Predict the structure.
Amino acid sequence: MKKIVGIDLGTTNSEVAVMEAGKPVVIKSSEGNAYFPSVVAFTKDGEKLVGDSAKRQAVVNPEGTVMRIKRKMGTKDKIKLHGKIYTPEQISAFILQKIKTDAEEYLGEKIDEAVITVPAYFDDDQRQATKTAGEIAGFKVRRIINEPTAAALAYGLDKKGEHKIAVFDLGGGTFDITLMEVGGGVFEVLSTNGDTHLGGSDMDQILVDYIADDFKKKHGVDLRKDLKTLQRLIEAAENAKIELSSTLKTTINLPYITVIENQPKHLEIELTRSLLERLINPIVEKTVKPCQQALKDAKLKPEDLDHIVLVGGPTRMQIVQKKVEEIFRKKAEHGVDPMECVAVGAAIQAGILSGEVEKDIVLLDVTPLTLSVETLGGVSTELIGRNTTIPTKKSKIFSTAADNQLSVEINVLQGERPMAADNKSLGRFHLDGILPAPRGIPQIEVTFDIDVNGIINVSAKDLGTGKEQSIRITGSTKLSDDEITRMKKEAETHAEEDRKRKEKVEIRNNGDTLAHSIEKTLNEIKDKISEDEKQNIENALKELRQALAGDDVDEIKKKTDELSEILQKVSTDLYQKAAQKASSSQQASGSSAEPQDDSWSGHPSDDDKTIDADYKVKDEDKNKTDNKKKQDKK
Amino acid sequence: MTAKKITEKKKEPHDKNIVSFKKEIERLKQELNEKNDKLLRSYADLQNYQKRIEKEIACKEEETRKKYLLEIIDLYELLKKAYENNNPKDGIQAILQNIQHLLEIEQVSVIDCLGKSFDHYCHYAISTIEKNDCKDGQIVDEIKKGYMIGSKILRPSQVVVAKNKNINKKEGE
């Protein structure tokens, strides 16, 4: 599929995004930034610079540098740079060319189609000029769309039926408010308004002035007079402003900011959010009038609007959000970076045009909750995690929990809780006819296959006999949103106790496995160990069995540890003896290692663990599933 | 090709042909379904892969953050000790050496700019100043030091650049 990029061609900065596997991705410039300064320059030697490098040399070469060319789009103005004449379209084309080259570099393929955004108030000439700029840059401009439309697309507001949207765009230097109506995927601008000289940089300036004035009052020195200190001040003010978006208080600390009468002076000032809000309130207040005018022009009341979308960095500030809420009496949409949402929306529009955003392809569902099977001790063992895109298929190999177990039960579960009983059972079935074998030996492959409609096929196959059983579960992904939220919330609130419960089961399972394997091997090694050692093991084993019969988990853990300690000592001795023997006789010591290891690692399963499923033993009247053990074999 | 075959054979519409066409259609339908399913599955695989990579990147970022935070914490502890010391000069020198060593390991180097000609690649001009005893475009002041990582810019030097009117005039003439 041919990729089409979405470009937010901005006054100060431009951005570009593209759809990848149905997801918008913001492309970085070759300098590693998510934005491209909209600056073009020609040096005295005739070298063309675009973006960061052009911005860095602007003050040295003002006669060769153009900024904010967007404001000239669609006019007959000419730009003279070192004697050469350019049209605004040509200058914009240089920016777009740089974006094109960097996007191609980033994506590793040729890009020659684009969707470009323009302000809603752009007239036909301005739109045509933007399109021409794109064409000069070598793009086939598939569409010119309005910036507020792109922002709304980024929030998927084209899909929510007929409604009215306000897009509040407060950038670094401009403010735009656009009221739109959307229906059937078509956006219609009802009114626009704004202020071409209002934005975040005004806020920074106010903050810098406040700090400098404060310092001057205390020390009699104006920090703005010295470029070095001013530069530090500007950076610190900007950082403080960003920090105060998430905290209530911050301290600006600039050591050695200046020297007064040979004494180094440090700047330290505490700023609170409320102070910042008081300082910038006059700027925020200036957004009110344009909004009211826009409402008036569209003949709308604030209540008529269904959605509010915020665009631009300064809208991250709470005071701005509060003001917007005050004006429109509604909370704004959240979730997309306000700095990126125009480019992201343009990329979505591009995706629709390229066919990438097609109903059947991109809108693939995800599993709302984790799908698992019940294993030993009532534990939920995950097969397919939450939020996995479907269709998908996963397999895992399980084994039996008891010797000579002839049947296993597969209990299919849905939910985030670690214990099976707390999750929703979607269905269960038995796989019979397993050949009698010691526990842990049979290999049962359980496969979950979810098709595009969310229908789950669960199958269990005895890899030894080839016997297979399966069920089909329909409607599992069609849980209501409420139900999903409830289940997720429950998992969160119970996380700690669930973890403890699972830990308890694991302790019990570990103890049980250990006891079981000792019972098996003790007979084999009894001739190789001393009577004392044998007695020790038997005693510890008995105690562990007793503990397992009870409910005291700490006791089980203690007894398990005691037994393993004894065993470790015994087995170390045993292996040492064997090694001595081997070195003298070179005889291979036929260990009774699990024969299944090789075949398991060679299996196409995506997981190399084997887990005992909580297979209820039919032929054995062992009703305490707790006594079975979960076993992970690496 | 198949379409061509079909039109050719349509000229002689025998029942036998119809049956075989129907079979062919069934086969193609099934093949299409299978292909479609495969396409959707590889698409879903790609999306799941994306999710996994995102998780991995987040993990990596956290690891990197931890690594550098621990370095900063070490330096913080040392600076605190130096602060409590009455004669901290030697200690601070050692701390500075530590930091320098860390920067060296990471191949961080200072951009040397004073007296050099302005280069938009590694310098950021904050201001200009008229100076007729300097070459035009010469850096006369450094506002903030710039750094490189290997051959890449970590941060450009913020500089003040000389404007020499005499030279400009000469050039203009």
